[in-house]
Specification:
The protein is of the alpha/beta class. It folds into 3 domains: 103 residues, NadA-like (Rossmann fold); 106 residues, NadA-like (Rossmann fold, 3-Layer(aba) Sandwich), CATH 3.40.50.10800; 76 residues, Rossmann fold (3-Layer(aba) Sandwich), CATH 3.40.50.10800. 43% of the residues are buried. Bound molecules: iron/sulfur cluster.
Length: 313
Amino acid sequence: MTDTLQENMKLLKNQINTLKKEKNITLVCHNYVSSEIIDIADFKGDSLTLASIASKIESEKILFVGVDFMAETLKILNPTKRIFVPNILATCPMANSLSPEMIQEAKKQYPSTPVVLYVNSTAECKAEADYVCTSGNALEVINNIPSDTIIFGPDKNLGQHIEKLSGKKMIYVPGESGFCYVHDKIPGSLVDEVRVVHPNAKVIVHPECALEVREKADFIGSTGQMAGIIAKDGGECYIIGTEVGMLYNLKEAHPNVTLYALSPHAMCSNMKKNNLLNILATLKSESNEIIVEESLRLKAKTCIVNMFEMMRS
Ligand code: SF4
C-alpha cells in the first residue's frame, strides 16, 4: 500500500470515528469485511455473536457492515433500533437461493417435519421456519429438536456436515443449488497442495466448504469456533479454509501462530461492497435504513427465539 493510500485511509477512519461519536452510532461488522473496517468496528463477530450482542448496544442507531440478511436479523431482534447499511446491494446469493414457496412445498410433502434454516436466509424464509441455526450452533440446535427428520436449507454443505454428525435425516431446500459460492468453489486439491508446502500445518475449514475439502481437513468449524480450535490445539501453523477476511481476525487473536489462507481467492464480493467511503457517506446521510414490516418481523422472530431456546435445552 502506498503512503498516500495509507494517509487517505487514516483520514477516512478518523472522520468515521469522529462522526459516529458525534451522532452516537455504533459500528457493527461481520468477520468477513475488509481489515480496515474491522479496525474501526465497535463490535465484530460471526452471525450468532452479532445477533446476541445487538440487544446490549445502548445507542439507538447501528451502522451494520456485512450483508443484508444479517442486518435484517439485527432488525428482527431489535425493532426499536434504527439500522443502516453502507450498501444495500451487499446481499448473500446463498440466502437468495431459497424462497418461501420452496419451503411451503417441502412442508406439504413432509408434514409435521420441523424446518431449520441456516441464519443465512431472508426474513420471508425465516417466517416459514421453526428454527434457525448458525454454523456454530447447528449441531446443538438440531440435536435438541425432538425429530429424526429435518427440512434444512439453504446450505447443503452445512446440512450434510450436520447430518453426518447428528445421524438425523435431512431434506434439503432448495437442494443442490443451495451453497455459498465462496466456500463451495474451494477445490479439495488445494488441501493436498498446501500439505506438501506446509507439512506441519493443520487445516481448519468452514462447514460451508464442499465435502471433498471437509473430508481432507483436520478440523471443521465456524468462524467463531476457529480461534477456539487454534487456542485449544496449541499448534504453530494453520491453513484456514474460509473467506479471506477471517484471516485478519485470527492473526489478531493469535499473533504468535503462523496462519495462511487455504484459498486467497475465497473472497465474498458482496461483503467487499462495503468500504470506508460508503460507511462515511451513510454516517452522514443516515440512508439505507433496514425496514422489516411488523407482521413479517414477528413471524421471522419466532424461529430465532426458538434457536436460543434449543441452545438452553
Ligand atoms: S461468504 Fe458466502 S454465505 Fe457469506 S455472505 Fe458471502 S456468499 Fe453469503
